[in-house]
Design brief:
Blueprint lengths: L1 E3 L7 E10 L6 E10 L2 E8 L15 E12 L5 E5 L10 E5 L2 E8 L18 E3 L3 E11 L13 E7 L1
Parallel strand pairs: 1-11
Antiparallel strand pairs: 2-3, 4-5, 5-10, 6-9, 6-11, 7-8, 8-10
């Protein structure tokens, strides 16, 4: 499992405010420097979901993987929403890992029971919410369904993680 991430840097906006005052002197210009910290989030840690070896003869799901995404948000007071793309399959019903022309279906979930598909809120998927100020780690639960006639090889997919705050 590979994650594509856009890293962002802290932003600081400095401004000068000048006030025209005519109290004691005929003309006094007072300038005050003010710092404004813009809200921002940055990924601090990503652990991809590793499924291990898939048993094509198993009648039950035999490859449950767990990964995690840690994001640190500062300067905000509200929560953020994290979504995952559908990857190569363009569907949240079942994501697809590829090995050349060979495919292997899987999905990513918000819960350990692997019943709630993590996506962008469309197609029956859900998003997750985290704290808007501080470090938050969210687990990614993966599962490969049984009964797939997969060829031997390494299968991958690219998932884009998006944080809206």
């Amino acid at each position: 499992m590979k994650f594509s991430i856009d890293w962002s840097k802290d932003s600081m906006l400095r401004s000068m405010r000048c006030i025209l005052a005519r109290n004691l002197l005929p003309l006094l210009i007072l300038c005050i420097q003010t710092d404004f910290v813009l809200a921002n989030c940055a990924f601090t840690s990503i652990t991809g979901v590793s499924f291990g070896i898939y048993d094509v003869f198993s009648a039950i799901p035999n490859n449950n993987g767990v990964g995690s995404i840690t994001v640190n948000c500062r300067g905000g007071t509200s929560s953020f929403v994290m979504s995952l793309s559908s990857g190569l399959s363009n569907s949240y019903i079942s994501r697809t890992m590829m090995n050349g022309v060979n495919s292997l279906n899987y999905n990513l979930y918000t819960n350990a029971g692997r019943t709630l598909v993590w996506g962008d809120g469309s197609g029956g998927s859900l998003t997750l919410t985290g704290l808007g100020n501080g470090k938050t780690t969210l687990n990614v639960f993966g599962q490969i369904p049984p009964g797939q006639n997969a060829k031997v090889g390494i299968y991958t997919d690219n998932i884009v993680v998006t944080v809206n705050f």
